[in-house]
Amino acid sequence: MPYVTVKMLEGRTDEQKRALCEKVTEAVAETVNAPKEKVVVFIEEMPKSHYAVAGKRLSDQ
Amino acid sequence: MPYVTVKMLEGRTDEQKRALCEKVTEAVAETVNAPKEKVVVFIEEMPKSHYAVAGKRLSDQ
Amino acid sequence: MPYVTVKMLEGRTDEQKRALCEKVTEAVAETVNAPKEKVVVFIEEMPKSHYAVAGKRLSDQ
Amino acid sequence: MPYVTVKMLEGRTDEQKRALCEKVTEAVAETVNAPKEKVVVFIEEMPKSHYAVAGKRLSDQ
Amino acid sequence: MPYVTVKMLEGRTDEQKRALCEKVTEAVAETVNAPKEKVVVFIEEMPKSHYAVAGKRLSDQ
Amino acid sequence: MPYVTVKMLEGRTDEQKRALCEKVTEAVAETVNAPKEKVVVFIEEMPKSHYAVAGKRLSDQ
Predict the structure, then answer these.
(1) Per-residue three-class SS string for chain A
(2) Thinking of the domain B3-60, which architecture would CATH place it in?
(3) Neighbours of chain F (3+ CB pairs under 8 A)
(4) pTM surpassing 0.95?
(5) Domain ranges of chain F
């Protein structure tokens, strides 16, 4: 606890995801006073065809 | 805002997903008085082996 | 199936939520060819203090 | 109703997932007094590179 | 791991929720071969006005 | 995009939540190369009676 889910478009590199988990965990631990060991991060990726803003998918733009 | 997630079995065509995002966005914008530009839609697909009703997966029926 | 979750700021009227569920269900049923009886809608509300864009919560603006 | 989502690392066998859905459905139905026919289970899998504890992904350990 | 979310209508007693967490944890641990200590359960409740089937909210029936 | 959900026990102060949104947004923007303006953060709180580890709710410990 806390449990953090980051939902984003697919395509980030493995190194970016590694850094994301590390930095987000630090940001959460320091701001809500949680032990770093208890912070959990989930990454969820989506393709451009599964994400729409204003009714238009990114794959259709 | 609002953020809409549609979870469904995989297998819909790209054209069906395109229409889904468009029509759901219109339905949300008109009923809760949100600007269409602010409506976000996420599609999440699942295989039949990851979905169960009454304890039985669709892939086992 | 499908399962639709609409996440938005609290404050909509009961009538708006009723219309939202009705219209979104129709939009989903007609575009992905699902029987209307199978469409499920969940509404999730959040306060302005639990929603941030660009690092700034709506309650801080 | 209820709707149960089980999020776990990928790699379980099809037989394990089948048993998971069956047993979780029974556990839910008997404890919250819901008809078994109404219980829905979703399985969500994630790779080790999308799951971090204490800022470190399982794929980096 | 695994992380289990149970979404249901509000109104269950505290004792039902306690039993739910206990029994679901056992069902998950035994079927996917996870240590019981690693299983996490989240309960999410919704009012009848935030849940619709076939376009009709439970609060409108 | 990205969309970040932080799920945690209720009880944090308003100032902690404000700092959480700010710092998590910075961490995400810098690591996955997203414009800060596009990062969205949702906070979800749960009571101790809706969260269990190893089958035991925090409210029962």
Answers:
(1) CCEEEEEEECCCCHHHHHHHHHHHHHHHHHHHCCCHHHCEEEEEEECHHHEEECCEEHHHC
(2) 2-Layer Sandwich (3.30)
(3) A, C, E
(4) yes
(5) 3-60
